[in-house]
Amino acid sequence: MVTTSSQDSLSQTFDLKTFDLKGYLSDRQQRVEAALDGALPVVYPETIYESMRYSLMAGGKRLRPILCLATCELMGGSEPMAMATACALEMIHTMSLIHDDLPAMDNDDYRRGQLTNHKVYGDDVAILAGDALLAYAFEYVARQTVGVSPERILRVVADLGRSVGAEGLVGGQVVDLASEGNPDITLETLTYIHTHKTGALLEVSVTAGAILAGADEAAIATLSDYAKCIGLAFQIVDDVLDITATSEELGKSAGKDLQAQKATYPSLWGIEESRRQAQQLVDQAKAAVACFGAGAQPLLALADYIVARTH
Q: Phi and psi of 115, rounded to 5°?
C-alpha cells in the first residue's frame, strides 16, 4: 500500500500539476488516428473494409496505443518503433468491442455514441470484421514495425496472442458470460474476469512498448506491475460509471451490468469503497514507476486519468 507521505513525495518529485495531460493526450490521439487511418484503406470487397473502419475510426480514448508509445519512449525507444504495435492494439481492442456488442454476448445497440457494428452491417459482417481486424493486427506488427530486431517483434507478437486468447481476454469473457445471473460470484472470480477480460490487453500495451525499445527484464516487470494496477482500476471505474453515468456520457447503454445481472465491484463493495479501491490501485501503480524518474510523468498522469475519467 502507498502511504500518504509517499504519495506526497511523488507529487513533489514530479509536480504532475504542471504536466499538460490534455495536450499530451490530444497530440498522441491525433498521431494514432492518422496512423490508423493510413493503415486500413477501403479496397475490394468494400463492405468488410468499411465495416472494419466504421468501428476502428469511431474515436475513443486510444488509451492502449498511447500507453504503448509512452513506455517505448520512456525506455529510450522512438514513436516509429512502437506505432505499428500501437495500431495493432487498437485493432484488437476494436475487435473485442465489435464482438462484445453482438446479440450473443452483451447485445448492445450503441458504442462510442453511434450504432454498434452489427446494427449497421448485420451480425455476419460484424463477426467477420472483428475476425479481420484481429488477423490484420498481427500482420501489421510483423510487416510494419521499423527499427526493431526480429526477436523483439516476435516476442511482442507472442505476448499479443496470449493477451487476447484463452489465457487473456477470451478466457475472461467466457467466465464473465458463465457468471451472469449468479448472485454468489466471489471477489476472486470477479477479479479473474477483469484481470483477463480488460487487464491483459492493457498490460501488454504497456510491456510491448518497453520490449520494442529493448528494456531489460527488471524494467519490463516493473511496468507490468504498473499495468496490472491500472488495468484493474480501469475496470472498477467502468463498473462505477455503468451505475452513475448516463448513456450519453458513456456513449453506450448505461446500466447494462445490472440488467444482465452481472457481478460488479460496486455490487460487492458499494460505490464509495469501489472508488477507494480504484484510487489505491492507482497510487500503487504510480509508486511502481516512480523509479524511472521524470520520464515517467506521462505514465503517472495517465494513471490519474484512468481513475478520474467520466466516460
A: -60, 140
**Which residue(s) pair with 111 in the sheet?**
114
Confidence check: pLDDT of 296 > 50: yes
Q: What is the CA radius of gyration of the chain?
A: 19
Q: Rounded distance, CA 264 to CA 257, Å?
A: 7
**Pairing between β-strand 110-111 and β-strand 114-115 as defined by DSSP bridges:** antiparallel
Domain 4-38+60-77+150-308 in CATH 2.40.128.110: no
Spell out the residues 6+ positions from residue 176 whose beta carbon is closer than 8 angstroms to its own: 193, 197, 262
CB 134 within 8 A of CB 92: yes
Give dist(CA 305, CA 113) in Å, integer.
Answer: 21
Domain ranges in the chain?
4-38+60-77+150-308
Q: What is the pLDDT of residue 255?
A: 58
Query: Using the 8-state DSSP alphabet, how is residue 102 labeled?
Result: S
Left if phi > 0, otherwise alpha if psi is -120 to 50, otherwise beta: which for 110?
beta
Give phi and psi for 114, each to the nearest 5: -135, 170
The answer to whether 271 and 39 are in contact (CB under 8 A) is no
Q: 6-34, pLDDT tens digit by residue?
A: 444 444 445 556 899 999 999 999 999 99
Listed residue (21, 29, 23, 154) closest to 85, CA to CA: 154
Cis amide prior to 45 (ω within 30 degrees): yes
pTM of the model: 0.91
CA within 13 Å, CB half, 138? 14
Task: Write down how long the chain is.
Answer: 311
Could you read off the pLDDT of 224-253 as tens digits, one per residue? 999 999 999 999 999 999 888 766 656 656
Alpha helix segments (H runs only) across the chain: 4-14, 21-39, 46-56, 63-74, 79-100, 117-144, 150-164, 169-179, 187-197, 199-213, 217-244, 247-250, 256-259, 265-269, 271-289, 297-308
